[in-house]
Structure prediction request, 270 residues.
Amino acid sequence: MNKHLLPLALLAALPLSAVAAEDYGWSGSGEVGFAAARGNAKSENLNAKLQFAKEDETWKHNFYLTALRAKGEVKTPYIDGNGDIGFRKAYELNANRYETGLSSAYKLDERSYIVGALRYENDDFSPFDYQAVASIGYGYTMLKNQSDELSFEVGPGYKRYKPVDVLGPEIVDGREVRHRFDAEGEIVGRGLIAYKHNFSDTTSFVNTLLVESGSDNTFIQNDAGLQVAINKSFALKVGYQIRHNSEVAPGIKKNDQLMTTNLVYNFGAK
Prediction:
């Protein structure tokens, strides 16, 4: 499938996914947000997320798939025939990211569990073409009641990643030389903290912090969201995400931020 069509494919798959999930005892949610601006500025942004969860007395499983695609006006400098600096406007893709992950946990008792997790992402505008991580660890639910849930996971893992290609500074035949990098791998430590607070039956706050740290790079992602239910199935959600890579190529920023306002559809077992 053309990865540019993945956000739309997620939306199309949501009704069938919801029916299939309910048939097998899974719960889940699908969310989507779209924004477009016209006038002095032109931009479009589409993000989508699909996630499933299942839990019984012995196991708990989670799976998610996310997509982000955005276009906007970009100004690029140039020098005209008189030697003056000008700017050209171009309407270009400036975000194109897809991520999937799953985890399965075996419960040792009411609070402790052993968890295995996989995560893969492909991002056209990050310091890495892709990152893939497999890990195993120990998890502990510190708090779980009607208003609050708090848990953490920690353990070793292995990351495989490919740094993005870099242009320059050498010039050959009037063009900058493209430096290509091979895929690399390293042992990492993975940590995750998940928190949820229910303000009421209809309003909740969630925050998830993920850390994957190795000798070559430390990746940190924090997702925070405030969700307000419209009815039993639908909700509105405001989210804020920040992503950090400690080691990046020259000219690439270490931090990426994303603000979203999404419509959420909840389905499956309650």
Summary: The helical segments are 6-23.
